[in-house]
Design goal:
The chain is of the alpha+beta class. Helix content is 23%, strand content 20%. It is built from two helices and seven strands; from the N terminus they run H-E-E-H-E-E-E-E-E. Helix 1 packs across helix 2. The mean pLDDT is 78.
């Protein structure tokens, strides 16, 4: 699955047009918005993984059986370009999942509780990505 997704992603033109304001300004490919998946081959390769593997887990973990995909995208980080960005929260999302297709040494995701949550739920921690397909 990952090899096919990576090959399709590399063959697809990226843009920086996202539906939500985002401080991360790097090329991306929007695959789904507001629970509507695009018809391109890349979106259709990613969709079953999200819909049948990731979404059931998130619905359970977040105790939200009606949870749908607000946005799915593939973001590209070039070895010659920006490889990190400012700390931010996906304030419009109940949950966010990140999958690294090509992890590099030291890559990962800093996970933090919602800023409006009680202090006990606002802890943050780093999730390292070591293997293609690692998810946080």
């Amino acid at each position: 699955d990952l090899d096919k997704i990576l090959a399709l992603s590399n063959a697809t033109r990226a843009s920086s047009n996202e539906a939500f304001a985002n401080p991360v300004a790097s090329p991306s490919q929007v695959l789904a918005e507001d629970a509507c998946w695009r018809s391109c081959e890349l979106a259709q390769a990613v969709r079953p993984i999200v819909e049948h593997r990731l979404l059931p887990y998130l619905r359970f973990a977040l105790a939200c059986p009606a949870l749908v995909v607000g946005q799915a995208l593939i973001r590209r980080y070039s070895s010659r370009g920006k490889r990190h960005h400012q700390v931010h929260t996906d304030h419009q999302a109940l949950g966010t999942a990140v999958v690294d297709l090509t992890p590099q040494p030291g890559s990962g995701l800093c996970v933090a509780g919602h800023p409006d949550a009680p202090d006990s739920d606002r802890s943050s921690f780093f999730v390292p990505f070591e293997s293609p397909g690692d998810i946080a």
